[in-house]
């Protein structure tokens, strides 16, 4: 087996490639206290077959398996992202016990453990904020725009909007010394200028704008007008103000020939492992947008090491799909900058993942527009001078 590490691959005996995992997406809860109109998680009803929150047994076995993993591969770093559903539904006592155990393991083994949580923010209070600060938990809140935009889509089970609660959570976290980031899901019908004004001028937060989850069974609205305008606004003004938008960063990196560092766009392997509340190990969770039980495996931390997921045919199918793109993608000038888009967006019932993204035409327009804006400002530097790229 070829083992992929920061130092490059080493050769084994079975001809397969093992990507040494440094990241785990951990589901602390299978349920949510909200009913967002676009949520991918509940598109697959199999999520209801798992325990509501992380079981004690799964928590104990995770600590065992993480210890084994770090020691076996001599890791100097690892990251766990707490996710859901709504991960804070696990409750303060259980969460505190879990993160205390993880921090104790970090101290004992001497590796750097990054812990982060993505939350809708509605359960944040002073005690939660203190826990996040005490255990050095990075926090990301979901805010889709101003009150009108946010409350149209991010609603609770009574149909009420949640904007005021999540903005209050932002203030509570800051008062405790925790500076959260923000994730927004693109609403193509809105003006990205309003979003920029809210996040930069009013809330003063770091943020990203995610492409809505969709595949070829859906008919998503065009996102090209939104992202081209977002890029123009950022490039003409906000970039000089040191505002970072990860999706745009990924586009710029890809167009300049660098790895994007993102699963959303850009060529590269998809190697995410997800752990569910019963300890089950599965591939990337967003694949649930494709079909019922598509992520199901027979693996569990009770009896399997974290790396055993890489022997699972479903996990390997996703890895292969992320690296072996559809013929149309291989001929595309944006092959590396786009990388076929998010692997989940390529799904169709007829061809599985062997398709360009459902957003293919949008990505061509977005990438072409961004390149046209960037190219006149790029230079080739020699020993003697800088030559404009378009003249080189």
From TrEMBL:
Family matches, as CDD domains: Radical_SAM
Keyword Iron: yes
Pfam families in alphabetical order: Radical_SAM
UniProt GO MF annotations: iron-sulfur cluster binding; metal ion binding; oxidoreductase activity
InterPro entries with a match to the protein in the record: Aldolase_TIM (IPR013785), Elp3/MiaA/NifB-like_rSAM (IPR006638), rSAM (IPR007197), rSAM_sf (IPR058240), Sulphatase_maturase_rSAM (IPR023867)
Record's keyword terms, sorted: Iron, Iron-sulfur, Metal-binding, S-adenosyl-L-methionine
Coiled-coil annotated residue ranges, if any: none
Residue ranges of every copy of the Radical SAM core domain listed in the record: 18-246
Protein name stated in the entry: Radical SAM core domain-containing protein
Source species taxonomy: Bacteria, Bacillati, Actinomycetota, Actinomycetes, Geodermatophilales
